[in-house]
C-alpha cells in the first residue's frame, strides 16, 4: 500500500524529513476547547458618553472644542446565561470599557491638553453552545472552591476577541442631565484612572464615535480523536546571545521599507496567494 500523501513514485523522490513528517502513526485522543458557535461584527458606536474624573471634567467644562486622539479597550465583562425555552442556546452579555484620549482646546490657551476618560458600551448576542450535564472534578481544584468551579464547568465558555478600536470623532456638547443614564463603573476601572468619575454638576460632556470589530465565540471542553504524525521536535539550534551590542546590531537587517514606503501596487502583491 502506498504511503499517505505520497504516491509510490513521489515517496522515492520525497526528502527524508518530509516523508517522516507526513507518515500517519496513530490516532490520539486530546482534551481541547471546541468552538461550537461564533459570530463577527463590525459596529460603529456613535456618540458614546465619555466620563472623566473630577479634575479632568473641570478642563472639559472650560473647553471650547475637543478632538479625539486614540481609543483602547481597557476590559470586557462577559456574562453567560442559558436562553429560556431554547435548549443549547446562550445569551452572551458584554460590557466594553474604552479608554478614550481626547485633546481639549481651552479658550485661554493655544495648545491642546490631552486627557483620558472612560466610555461604556453594552452588547448582547445569542449563540449555540450545546448542553452538558456532567460534573467535572480535577486535581487542580481547591477543596473550598470545588462547588463554584464545578458549576462553571457545566456551562460552555464565552470568549470575545476585539481588534484595536478606531477613533472616529469626538464632540463637545452642553450637559443635559436627562439624556444620560447613570452607569456604574467598577472600582478596578476607577483605580486605573486615579479616582472616582464625576457625577455631580457639570457644564459640558464629551461624546465619542468609535469603530469596533469583534468576534464572539462559545467554546466547550471536549475530547477529540486526531491523527498524530510525530512529536514536535525542534529542527533548529538555539542562537546564543552576545553581550556585545554592536555584534547584536550587526545581525539586524537594514530597514529599507522605513525609508522607502511601499506603493499601493506593492501592497496588493501576494493577495491571491
Fold and architecture overview:
Strands 1, 2, 3, 4, 5, 6 and 7 form a seven-stranded antiparallel beta sheet that branches. This protein has 273 residues and is α+β, with helices and mostly antiparallel strands. The N terminus is likely disordered. The longest helix has 9 residues.
Number of helical elements: 8
Tally the beta strands: 7
Strand portion: 35-45%
Mean pLDDT: 81
**Element order: H for helix, E for strand:** HHEHEEEHEEHEHHH
Major sheet, described briefly?
A: 7 strands, antiparallel
Can you tag this structure with a few keywords?
7-stranded antiparallel sheet; alpha+beta; 8 helices; disordered N terminus
Give a short synopsis of this structure:
A hairpin with a 6-residue loop joins strand 3 (89-106) and strand 4. The longest helix has 9 residues, at 146-154. The protein has 273 residues and is α+β, with helices and mostly antiparallel strands.
SSE inventory with pairings:
Layout: H1 8-13, H2 16-21, E1 26-51, H3 54-61, E2 63-82, E3 89-106, E4 113-128, H4 146-154, E5 157-162, E6 166-174, H5 187-193, E7 204-228, H6 245-250, H7 256-259, H8 264-267
Antiparallel strand pairs: 1-4, 1-7, 2-3, 3-4, 5-7, 6-7
Amino acid at each position: 500500500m502506498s504511503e499517505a500523501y505520497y504516491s509510490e513514485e513521489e515517496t522515492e523522490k520525497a526528502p527524508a524529513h518530509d516523508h517522516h513528517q507526513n507518515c500517519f502513526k496513530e490516532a490520539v485522543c486530546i482534551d481541547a476547547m471546541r468552538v461550537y458557535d461564533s459570530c463577527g461584527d463590525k459596529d460603529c458606536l456613535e456618540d458614546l458618553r465619555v466620563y472623566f474624573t473630577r479634575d479632568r471634567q473641570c478642563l472639559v467644562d472650560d473647553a471650547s472644542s475637543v478632538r479625539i486622539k486614540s481609543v483602547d479597550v481597557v476590559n470586557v465583562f462577559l456574562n453567560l446565561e442559558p436562553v429560556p425555552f431554547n435548549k443549547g442556546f446562550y445569551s452572551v452579555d458584554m460590557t466594553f470599557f474604552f479608554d478614550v484620549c481626547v485633546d481639549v482646546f481651552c479658550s485661554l490657551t493655544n495648545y491642546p491638553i490631552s486627557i483620558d476618560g472612560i466610555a461604556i458600551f453594552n452588547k448582547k448576542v445569542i449563540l449555540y453552545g450545546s448542553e452538558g450535564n456532567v460534573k467535572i472534578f480535577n486535581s487542580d481544584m481547591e477543596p473550598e472552591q470545588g462547588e463554584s468551579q464545578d458549576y462553571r464547568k457545566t456551562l460552555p465558555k464565552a470568549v470575545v476577541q476585539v481588534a484595536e478600536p478606531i477613533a472616529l470623532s469626538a464632540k463637545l456638547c452642553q450637559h443635559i442631565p436627562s439624556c444620560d443614564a447613570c452607569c456604574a463603573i467598577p472600582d478596578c476601572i476607577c483605580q486605573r484612572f486615579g479616582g472616582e468619575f464625576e457625577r455631580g454638576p457639570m457644564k459640558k460632556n464629551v461624546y465619542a464615535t468609535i469603530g469596533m470589530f469583534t468576534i464572539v465565540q462559545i467554546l466547550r471542553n471536549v475530547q477529540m480523536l486526531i491523527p498524530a504524525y510525530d512529536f514536535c521536535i525542534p529542527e533548529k539550534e538555539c542562537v546564543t546571545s552576545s553581550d556585545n551590542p554592536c555584534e547584536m546590531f550587526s545581525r539586524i537587517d537594514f530597514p529599507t521599507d522605513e525609508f522607502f514606503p511601499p506603493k499601493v501596487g506593492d501592497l496588493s502583491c501576494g493577495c491571491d496567494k
